[in-house]
Design goal:
The chain is mainly α. It has helices spanning about 5-140, 145-160. Helix 1 (about 5-140) runs antiparallel to helix 2 (about 145-160). This is ATP synthase subunit b.
Length: about 160
């Protein structure tokens, strides 16, 4: 193979001219576009990383809020249990107090009725005694007849009650 030096230098000169033209008009803008693209990708990576960190932070905040909400709900349930227990105790105490009051009132009513019955019985006995005495005076009977008369009137008094 034989090298022709004249064409060799022409080809090198053409290559250098082509390289300079490409460098100025093709590689420069192409590398500029590629650099812009690299910067855009880098910015997107940084933005994505920041968004991921923010998402993690928001997720952690949401977990804390959820945990606090659960704790508040548990506290509210416990407070409702305590309140309902207190109300149940109060209702039971009120019922016991009312039952005691009604019992005392019934005892007083019974005592009053008893006293009325005794007073009525006393008045009936005294009326019977007067009646017996008047009959005795009228009849002037012997002791045996008198005992029979008293028993008869006592039976009448017992039957009226």
């Amino acid at each position: 193979m034989h090298i022709q030096w004249s064409t060799f230098f022409i080809q090198i000169a053409a290559f250098l001219i082509l390289y300079l033209l490409l460098q100025k008009y093709a590689f420069g803008p192409l590398f500029g576009i590629m650099e812009k693209r690299r910067q855009l990708v880098q910015e997107q990576i940084v933005t994505a990383e920041n968004n991921r960190k923010q998402a993690e932070q928001l997720l952690e905040e949401q977990k804390q809020v959820l945990q606090e909400s659960r704790k508040e709900a548990y506290d509210m349930i416990e407070q409702a249990k305590v309140t309902s227990s207190k109300q149940a105790d109060e209702i039971i105490q009120q019922a016991k107090a009312e039952a005691g009051r009604l019992k005392e009132e019934a005892i007083r009513d019974i005592e009053n009725e008893k006293n009325k019955a005794l007073a009525s019985l006393k008045s009936q006995v005294s009326a019977m005694s007067v009646l017996i005495a008047s009959k005795i005076i009228e009849k002037q009977i012997d002791e045996k007849s008198q005992e029979q008369l008293v028993e008869h009137y006592l039976k009448e008094v017992g039957g009226n009650q």
